């Protein structure tokens, strides 16, 4: 059974047995999948196994990084996180084109890194800046939400350019500028990318308690401090998401028009 500290600072420590008990609950999910013939059993098993393996692996790495606090090691971790997030965002776009990975990397890295720098330097004022306890979790939170927003925006916008090719070319023939011709799909794509973030902000604290806040409270932190951290992270995620969606849309827009302001469909 978990051990707890004094009631003044209650902290429940989970054992491997507790983790195994939680893992066994996946059997219920598998049973539902089998009973309803959802054909998700193999996916569920793979997802559960990857969850355990990936989180255990990153836990060992973070423990090592936290103990050493070397700036170059932290920088390597941050770079790897950004590259993996860029690849994940790219893979969610169904109609990929040459250069999509570069565009997603630019959108993800600029939006996430810029907002992380603001958080570390101006809000938290962490010294030194590469303190892994702060910069790695913050960048991870921002990247996770940014890649979702960017992938939703990119996927919808690329599909719109393909599906609305006739309408866009008609507007161009009627003397509309390229941006005027595609403003409506760009707007719709950015709104679509921002929807998950905005939905979370609208119900946070009423319907849901976000992960960072819940984790801090379970770890014994002062709830008021946990709330402040959560407010900060929600605003950081919102800014990063809108920056990422906008950059992604503009980069895709640039790819789909040539120097003669003609619509092209890159492969």
From TrEMBL:
Keywords: Membrane, Transmembrane, Transmembrane helix. The chain crosses the membrane at residues 12-32, 44-65, 71-89, 101-124, 201-219, 231-253. It is a multi-pass membrane protein. InterPro entries: UPF0014_fam (IPR005226). This is Iron export ABC transporter permease subunit FetB. The keyword Transmembrane applies. Belongs to the UPF0014 family. It is found in: Membrane. GO terms for cellular component: plasma membrane. The keyword rRNA-binding does not apply. The gene is fetB. Its main location: membrane.
């Amino acid at each position: 059974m978990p051990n707890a500290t004094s009631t003044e600072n209650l902290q429940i420590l989970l054992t491997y047995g507790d983790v195994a008990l939680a893992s066994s609950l996946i059997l219920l999910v598998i049973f539902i999948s089998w009973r309803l013939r959802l054909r998700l059993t193999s996916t569920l098993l793979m997802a559960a196994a990857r969850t355990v393996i990936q989180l255990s692996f990153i836990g060992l790495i973070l423990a090592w990084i936290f103990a050493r606090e070397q700036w170059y090691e932290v920088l390597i971790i941050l770079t790897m996180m950004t590259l993996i997030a860029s690849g994940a965002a790219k893979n969610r776009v169904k109609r990929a084109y040459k250069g999509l990975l570069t565009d997603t990397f630019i959108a993800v890295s600029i939006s996430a890194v810029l907002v992380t720098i603001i958080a570390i330097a101006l809000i938290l004022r962490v010294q030194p800046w590469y303190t892994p306890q702060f910069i790695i979790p913050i960048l991870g939170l921002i990247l996770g939400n940014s890649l979702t927003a960017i992938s939703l925006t990119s996927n919808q916008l690329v599909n719109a350019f393909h599906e609305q090719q006739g309408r866009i070319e008609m507007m161009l023939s009627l003397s509309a500028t390229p941006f005027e011709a595609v403003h409506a799909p760009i707007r719709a794509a950015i709104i679509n990318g921002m929807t998950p973030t905005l939905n979370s902000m609208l119900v946070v604290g009423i319907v849901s308690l976000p992960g960072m806040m819940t984790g801090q409270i379970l770890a014994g932190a002062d709830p008021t401090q946990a709330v402040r951290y959560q407010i900060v992270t929600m605003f950081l995620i919102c800014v990063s998401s809108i920056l990422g969606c906008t950059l992604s849309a503009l980069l895709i827009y640039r790819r789909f028009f040539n120097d003669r302001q003609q619509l092209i469909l890159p492969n």
